[in-house]
Protein 1
Amino acid sequence: MQAAAARARRVLASPAASGLPGILWAPRLGSASGAEGALLLHLYGVPSSASSPHHARGFSSCFAPQSPGNLIFPTMASQWLCEKSVHYQMATAHFSTEASEVDHPTAHVTEAVEEMYQKMLKSVEAETMPPNAWLWSMISSCSNKEDIKLLFQILQKLRVFRLSNLRINANFNDHLCMKVTEACARVGTLDYGLKALWKHNVYGITPTIGSAHYLLQHAKELNDTKLMESIMQVLRRNSLPLQPGTADIVFSICYNADRWDLLSKYADRFVKAGVKLHRTAFDIWMEFAAKVGDSQSIWNINSLRGKSVKHYTLATGFACAKGSLLDRKPENAAAMIKLLYKHLPDQKKPFVQDELQKLIAEWPTEVVKRQKKDDRKAMEEALIKDIPTMISCLTKSGLDIPVDLDKLTPQLQAA
């Protein structure tokens, strides 16, 4: 019996066993010994007769061609194997159809894209590298998701062709990869855009931080923090180096979406990565800290800012003034504004009055409403007292900037 089982397994593993079992197996089953025939059908899934204790003998006799009375079992086996064959062919046809649809998707594909795809496909099949102009034309013509799918398919085929026929191991140049990412963002197929950021991909695309910036800018236009987080996650997984420009975009997305928690999270990541932040990033970061009333963060960020940026901007200077007011130090706030006014370029000095009026009329309302309910009343009373004191200190120091203090109390009462 063990020898028969071994022979059966060899039959199953043979080339003849693949393909259409209903056709190829019938002769083998007809010529097999009784034990082998029974075992083959058992291995292939045909249930044995439960009513007969001598089912092996029954299977042996059912394959005896000289016995007309034993044609029931062969008929059943033949029908069952044919049925298996039909299922196999249906499955094969299904996968073939899928492959055909992938290779030649026509639904909703732009005519110009389809034309370029077919031209490049024929060129590759003829074992000649298609001109670069065709690929550039296809990229610029993409206008929907089906176009992008087709673009990535031809990129994969070109990648294989370059490797197998031209022995070129290098990916496509960075500029092409940037254009592919731009096309993905333009069409709105961000899932494919993220694929362009993977270090190991089958498309020959080299991920660059410039491509990531383009996708981040798209997330900024959509005010989409989830997309931003997805992009940042892909950057991290693929070890793409963070740049100061990356922080500029990420910080602005977090600020526009009013997500102090996200900004704090990514700011920490940028700092730990040793990224030298731009002045713009510090402006957004410190202004947001003042907006939420986090004076400790203001001083920590300002300390970090002082290591890379020499002069204050309107945003960072007034953030420090607000930090002093939050700490109940109006004299320090006045000194900060005076120092800022002194070092600002002449063309920037007129904006100090606007920022000071915003500090009086807008900021107190914003910062108070962000506090816990139990703390709002105390902060409101402190600001109503300390902001006029700050203005008085400014005037005494020689910096007389006309502002409307009457807007302070009504705004706070509205909060």
Note: Residues 4-107 have pLDDT under 50 and may be disordered.
Protein 2
Amino acid sequence: MKSSLKKSLYVGLAAASVFGAAGLASTTASAKSYAYVTKALYFNTAPESRNVVPTGSNALYSKVGTSKGARVVASKTTMARLGNSNRSNDYFRAYSIVSTNRGSVYYKVVSFDGHYRGWIYGGKDKTKFGGGIASTNTTSSAALPSTTTGYTLTNPSKWTLWNNPKYTQYKASKVTGFSNTDTFTITGAETKTREGWVYYQVKDDQNPSITGWVYNLGVQAPQGNSVKISYVDKDTGKEVGTGSVPFDKSATYTNVTTTSNLNSIVNGVPSGYVPYDNNNGGSASLANKDNAAVAKNGDTLVYYVKAAATDTTKAIKVVLVDKDGNAINLKSNDQAALDAAGAKAAFQVKAGDTISAQDVQNILADANLTDLISNSGSSYRFASASNTPTTTNDNGATITVRATYNLIAY
């Protein structure tokens, strides 16, 4: 499902009709003061390789931005907001490309939800995205559950099957042709980059030609092979919700503290609550980690939560630097994962409190960036972070913090 973004885009001359479809001016007497299109080009790459995010450096226009009659569809401020969004439906797909007499490249793009459509400046090099847009990966690989067979749908009207994880591709659509009582085999797993939600790729056991993607809470393992999760507000001692972790019916126990099981538990935290302690991938919120490591069928494990504060930061933006203070440039998918982790409600702090070094480390761990390979190919490992105080004026604000990494290898 997940396509790898290529460093270059192959473009060639397209039919002259593209000029008319783009609504762009050709060479006229007025071209002395306005840019005009000299070449209409086309993509020769898979649509999935043309998923992009706005950089915020350029606005979206109804025509090429410097051509006569062009009007603003979305300002630079709006495009920057969409580029930093934590919603997958705010991604864009590039589907047309032209170059102008001034040597500029423009792309026609549309947001995944179809709300925004127009032309945006893409730099001077037609072989790669630049200017107002950048390549992105909308998902990343996730771990498969320990049990992969015999799954059933939990709530098809709420969590149904999609041909791609919802809003991770333009025009992702629902899958039909299966029965709500069918059983399914899990064949793949992906994490939505922005939301951090895990989706499973499943194959219908009764209709093997039918495959799709479903939110991980939308399927359950064969009944009877599960551990109940009791979400308890630690401050009040009251249970505020329940969940479950399935495991293979042939196994005598399961380890609930594995990454995939913990992700399922954290994703299942009831609305209005966050994990009580985010340390160690959220396992610090388990009341008894020893029991969780050898949980048996029918066991109940307490997972502590707390009410989500309303006067908190909006997001914590982590900037990565080396020991000399030089910025580390991340690959686009790693940067997207880091931004998504920093925007999660679980990691926000109350305005006026301190963002601790441990908070920063938890965000990095959630984004799987304790160790990383930079965009230039160098290997780094997390070294340290500092405490960053906030003020009461930071309610709803994005706070920038720094994390220092040691260079391991060039």
Note: Helices lie at 17-22, 76-83, 259-267, 289-293, 332-342, 357-366.
Protein 3
Amino acid sequence: MGTGFLFLGLFLATAVGGGAAKVNEPRPLFVFGDSLVDNGNNNFLYTSARADTPPYGIDTPSQRPTGRFSNGLNIPDVLSSVFRELIGSEPVVPYLSPELTDKRLPLGANFASAGIGILNDTGFQFGDVLRVPLQLEYFREYKRRLASLVGEKQAKNIVNKALVLVSLGGNDFVNNYFLYPFSPRSLQFPLPDYVSFLMSEYRKILKTLYGLGVRRAILMGSGPLGCAPAEIAQHSVDGECAGNLQAAAELFEPQLAEMVKSINAELGADVFVAANTKLMHNNIITDPHSYGFETANTACCGQGPFNGVGFCTATSNVCNNRDKFVFWDAFHPTERASRLIVEQIMNGTDLYMRPMNLSTIMYLDSSN
């Protein structure tokens, strides 16, 4: 039984127990953020942050790279597949892709771009990427295109009923604060103050999204930053997670949840949901064998210690069974690990999803 069918059974059981749910209505999906959720925008940009060469995409039907930093599907893809089984939604395509035709426009779009962060100076080394202000500007452009296609009122309804997935924060540590010793941001802020600064800037982004019509958004946390093979290769000799980056994640995740609580109280509705992806990953990383993995500190594709040095390329070491690895490359999860993360987003307790999981959101929204 596929993961989506498991979600389908749980969702329908909830619907039957609490009233009829409109499970046949497609729900648009909008995606903002970084490489964890980019599904190909950077293919169309002059940037080194790209995943459009083999062996990326090795487990897709075409076995060709798609721009996703994965061996196959990434987190938005898995969510789209769940939506397709539940309510007939279609996968969203990158906003910069010519595949985003008028016919597909009402289904949503992916604005994410690898290398970006909450701050505009994050990922400067990657060149031409879609930083948050540009992602938001493209969202405004999307809304204008949609309105010209279906009318202002229908366009507003489509945006209001959409689910939004946001992945921000990890790069602000890996590719900014801890990028190299004595980085400008590390000289400007002690780590706790830097996290507070990130939250103040993130809050502005979320208020902008709300002003643009977003009414349901899941915010992925920073994840277990120090446990990425790239960081282990750089900071560890015994395979343990890098302490400074883990300390950053320990500060970021609870503050994200508190910020969400504060904004929702201000708005008078549970618009934003904090997903503690650090904790989700930690369960897998600390006990990979219980989840069917062989290793959690070594990338499937790479070179050097823990396959964590440099990029995943056609000349890299590549594992034979991607399902046995938590990490595909030096920073990004395999498709199978992404499926486990989505399972927690769908059904996780308030330890992982605050104030509610996605199954609850879908039931509540389908009843309205």
Note: The beta strands are 29-33, 108-110, 163-167, 217-220, 272-275, 295-299, 301-302, 317-318, 325-327, 353-354.
